[in-house]
Amino acid sequence: MNISEKISGLVIQCISKLYQKDIETEKIILQQTRKEFEGEITLVVFSLGKTSGKKPEQTALEIGEWLKTNTDLIVDFNVVQGFLNLTIANFYWLEVLHEQFLNTQYGYVKTIAEKVLIEYSSPNTNKPLHLGHVRNNLLGFSLGEILKAAGFEVIKANLVNDRGIHICKSMVAYQKFGNDETPESAGLKGDHLVGKYYVRFDQEYKLEIKNLVDSGISEDQAKKTASIMQEAQQMLLDWENGIPKVIELWEKMNSWVYEGFAITYKQLGVDFDQYYYESKTYLLGKEIVEEGLEKGVFFRKPDNSVWIDLTADGLDEKIILRADGTSVYITQDLGTAEQKYHDFGMDQSIYVVGNEQEYHFKVLFLILAKLGKTWAKGLYHLSYGMVDLPSGKMKSREGTVVDADDLMAEMINEAKIQTESLGKLDDMPNEQKEVLYSQIGLGALKYFLLKVDPKKRILFDPKESIDLQGNTAPFIQYTYARINSVLRKVNVDVSEIKLNTIDLPKAEKEIIVQLANFPAIIQSAAKERSPAVVANYLFETAKEYNHFYHSSPISTESNQDLKNLRIAISSATASILKNGFSMLGIQVPEKM
RNA sequence: GGUUUGGUAGCUCAGUUGGAUAGAGCAACGGUUUUCUAAACCGUCGGUCAUAGGUUCGAAUCCUAUCCAGACCA
Q1: Nearest 5°: phi and psi at A471?
Q2: Chain B bases having any atom below 7 Å from a protein CB
């Protein structure tokens, strides 16, 4: 039971004793006391006026007095207008702290309540990953870690988009212009090599359109008749018909891409429990179409196409199956959703996909609900904003992207320059330095993307490198490293420390109160499905600790009780920073 | 045209179910190291919370309308 729940209980008791009235827990509004006032928890009394029949200040005074005299937990109070500021007994804070530094998994919920599947990343195999994908990957991974900490069983899934016309485009371009180039011969990562031909296709295609338009054909017509596009469409048909030569090329090029992705994923630190491939799932969903027709949820038009009418739900009529019987995206997604439920029987299924697909998922979830799928209520689209450049949207085929591999390399290099210029680590072995640069550089990148609310779009200016000072990962990493340094200096076994009840100085109490919020933060981040909640909390915590650090010497403190207290606080802070960061996929260095 | 998300300091963002004088970081300026890591700390400057109404003891937060930006559906 956390402190708010405890106090709520006490206030209910108090009101029943003082005013002979019962009150619902929801009516009791508690918040953290603002720094400028005495106390740690504040009861907002305005809404209790009706219950007490008295003015807010009078009510606050009466409740405060009762709590002070009748409970051990509350030792003092003060009233400001309708706010009752409560001072909690030191023994409580010491208890919390004690639990924290003994339990390195403080705040984690160990009993598994529900199973949740998170689908994220879901790349196309025709080009390398860019900054937008990085946001997706980090959000998906991080949310998975947060949900695990909050007591969910998590399955991370990746639905690879490995077929379709866009894949055929790079294949056609490679066939025409590739000269049997390989990643080895070109000295390129496999995904970059394939991406090169995706760009090449677009260039050739545009050129051909231009020539056709110049010869007097309309642009629309030119787009359709361009021979390179027709080749791509033919290749898609050949692929569907399993023409060996095409399948072979497809397999070869995809395998290059997978080798490239594996490297990028590894460096990003993301992983998956389950892979789905669109090439294996794209025919799913046709049975659902039958099911929908039988149930009367779908209807067939005279031209034989299948539709659903969602106008009553404020949406449109949506096509489910084309007149020629071929699938559209939503058909596959219906099938894949059912497949996933069949495979895992999860309670919740989260799709981490950009906000451009909000409409699509609204339709998908609605259809599944209308089909009477009991699991449809557990579907959720984690929609996030685009990462845009000052010049606008990133487009792979036009080459206007911030490449994930390049960016990571730049960030690591930036971290290296910065670290070397500080010149504190001259005695560190080179191998260790490389690890550190990567922790700092990647940490800064990840934090940059995760600290903002997923709903918001992010503007990334490649000309301005990502900060390493202020509200950044290195700030928090530094706080961690510094705590480690102090703990090395005092050289005690933290688990052996006994905390005696002593007066808590203000700085000490403030940081303990901050640390005590960690379990609630995990829950709130899980509920809101937002790693940003964790990121912002960790920044506040690090800031609070730094404030404490500068006013509270540890190694030179002669009062043993106070020294132990500070060691305990430092140790607890370190483990919260480390655990919190691990939920964001960011590592902490022992030294920096 | 419709749906939807956002708009908070020069810039990047926090701001819990409505609560106290709207907070951080960056940038700018000033200070702190014979003391445990100065990637730090302390201070100064900076606000019509897009706009206008409404709800109420109380609104950045809820409601309505409008403006701006993004995304999507025709």
Answers
A1: -80, 75
A2: 2-6, 12-17, 19-21, 24-27, 35-42, 57-58, 70-74
